[in-house]
Write a structure and sequence with these properties.
alpha/beta, Nucleotidyltransferase, domain 5, 2 domains, globular
């Protein structure tokens, strides 16, 4: 049995959110996120601005996380931080701070893979949320990743399918941009889709062999469709925004579900968990829950606050690393690209 007073401080700085969380024996005491609003006017994340904002936010965010948790820094057992993947400048801020704090407090340092952490968010102790049993399949869907992962243990994960081009989050955001919606557009597509007809405008699904995905062709077909319709009716988007968004979302979900069904058939694993920012999408969450009855799957949908980038998921990954004494040394460096 592990000791019963493990306090992990998690630090997340992979993109444009500065986050810190405190976890006690697998249960979240605090989970603080500072979102950078500055990127909205540029229509996407500007890496240099992101890293500068992390430098401004990291001390107050960590202070707030400790304050909400009701503990002092001297009670911490270890510091967990995002090593990668992500934006290099952003990762460096979190990595450097975590190493300094670990050194100053003379406590272990735990380096965490951001994508593994998204999956391990399912193991945060939450009374109303059931945890998946090993082995299970994880569909990790975010702005930068679309993967099907076979999860055999906390840190034994194998990517068995992934996108060959755009990630699903990009597909949502780029479609939103085509429609003239502000950044980030994915949540707005979801919002409009809830009131639209998902079969109003059929879009083609890409034919990709195996368990891999492709979304670039879909994005192009949406662009050509909108351009054609606007030539005939300049008010087409304005008058059909809900049906357009519903049709786009329906097609994207269909692509994801087709591959999931194929994966279940190949592996025989019927436990499915979703993870990553796009798992906040209401259509995806609803479709996955419906699949339980339809395909006799057991599905796991994370708590909303653990879907987008957050430090609670970094802390839980750190918790399991701490238990297995898988510590990092001071020579550890941030990596923009890092394998699962």
């Amino acid at each position: 049995m592990p000791p019963q007073n493990i306090y992990i401080l998690g630090i997340e700085s992979s993109c444009d959110d500065t986050a810190a969380a405190v976890l006690h024996n697998g249960r979240i005491l605090s989970n603080v996120v500072a979102t950078q609003e500055i990127h909205q006017k540029y229509g996407g994340v500007v890496p240099e601005l992101a890293s500068r904002a992390h430098q401004q936010n990291i001390v107050p965010v960590i202070h707030e996380a400790l304050s909400r948790a009701g503990i002092s820094k001297n009670e911490l057992s270890a510091i967990a931080f995002t090593r990668g993947p992500g934006l290099m400048g952003s990762l460096l801020v979190g990595t450097s701070f975590a190493k300094s704090l670990s050194l100053g407090l003379k406590i272990p340092l735990l380096d965490v893979n951001h994508m593994q952490a998204h999956i391990l968010a399912h193991f945060i102790e939450e009374a109303e949320f059931e945890k998946p049993q090993f082995p299970f399949l994880a569909l990790t869907i975010s702005g930068g990743h679309t993967q099907i992962v076979k999860v055999s243990n906390y840190f034994e994960m194998e990517v068995i399918g992934e996108t060959l081009d755009d990630a699903v989050g990009e597909a949502f955001d780029k479609s939103a941009k085509i429609l003239g919606l502000p950044y980030p557009g994915g949540p707005l597509v979801d919002k409009y889709a809830q009131k639209g007809n998902p079969k109003a405008f059929p879009f083609p699904k890409p034919k990709v062999e195996g368990l891999n995905f492709s979304f670039s062709g879909l994005k192009t077909s949406i662009l050509y469709f909108i351009q054609k319709q606007l030539k005939e009716d300049p008010k087409f988007i304005e008058e059909n925004i809900e049906d357009i968004c519903a049709s786009i979302q329906h097609t994207i979900i269909g692509i994801l579900m087709d591959k999931l069904k194929k994966t279940v058939k190949q592996t025989g694993i019927k436990q499915i968990a979703i993870a990553g920012g796009v798992s906040a999408n209401s259509g995806i969450r609803q479709t996955l829950k419906e699949a339980e009855a339809k395909y006799h799957w057991k599905t796991f949908v994370p708590k909303f606050e653990y879907t987008t980038d957050n430090a609670a998921m970094i802390a839980i990954a750190g918790h399991y690393k701490f238990i297995s004494e898988d510590f990092a040394d001071m020579g550890v460096t941030a990596k923009a690209r890092i394998k699962m």
